[in-house]
Amino acid sequence: MLLKTINLSKKYGQKVAVDxxxxxxxxxxxxxxxxxxxxxxSTTLKMLIGILDPTSGQVIYRDNIKVxxxxxxxxxxxxxxxxxxxxxxxxxxxxxxxxxxPVLVKKLGLTNFLNQNYGTLSGxxxxxxxxxxxxxxxPDILFLDEPTTGLDIQTRLAIWQLLQQLQEIxxxxxxxxxxxxxxxxxxxxxxxxxxxxxxxxxxxxxxRQQYSHNQLILFTNQAERIAQSLSDDISVKxxxxxxxxxxxxxxxxxxxxxxxxxSIITNFEYHPGSLDDAFVNLTGKxxx
Length: 288
Description:
- The structure is a single chain.
- The protein has 9 helices and 14 strands.
- By secondary structure, the protein is of the alpha/beta class.
- It has 2 domains: 3-208, Rossmann fold (3-Layer(aba) Sandwich); 213-272, Alpha-Beta Plaits (2-Layer Sandwich).
- The strands form 3 sheets. A 6-stranded mixed beta sheet has the order 6-7-8-4-9-10, sandwiched between helices. Strands 1, 2, 3 and 5 form a 4-stranded antiparallel beta sheet that branches.
- A hairpin with a 2-residue loop joins β9 and β10.
- α6 packs across α9.
- 32% of the residues are buried.
């Protein structure tokens, strides 16, 4: 195991921010820490990185591990060029990493603005430079604290394609916190934290299946008739006189309903249960 925690806890006075969190992160895996605002995920991440001491419990790494971190806020100098920033950071390691800079420049597409001041870059360009900075020491494990917040969808996709390549080709271990739950869809392990406690863990698929539901909506001028004719074991909701909604266990059950009523429906929508649905069902709809 590359990293694990044992009853990791953090208190601020009488307030418990993190309460006995146990994580287990295999080498080469992708782990997502999810939770509402104030749930304790960022505090947990800071303890894993080592910039915050736990009140109790342990963080245990395998020997001789190299760590990279992409923070929410940049730690680079606005008045230096991208190249100067990377060279300066590379020299801070015991074994200077300047020789690896050209490789990262190519992989992350930094060539066109390498000699441009960091402060003049777009949000997506800055984030790519920050990822390059975090990869300078060729880490075994990369921590990403909400790395794509505020970025457009094209930049988000490009960053994740790169990270997935690094994970697959170099065996990079990734630990992510994010509010974009689609970024956790392919996580090997998801930990959902709320009020400082671990409320559920498992793969994205396991969590979707257990805590979300598939929705089928039929559009018809006989919605009330359909709603009344179904058996009690199928959850159904009459939205209005032209729409009826079903909660289905599977796509095949939805197909059976469609086949049964195809002659009297004008349209339909099918929404498979998602990680977003599961997250809301687990943590509630209240704004934090």
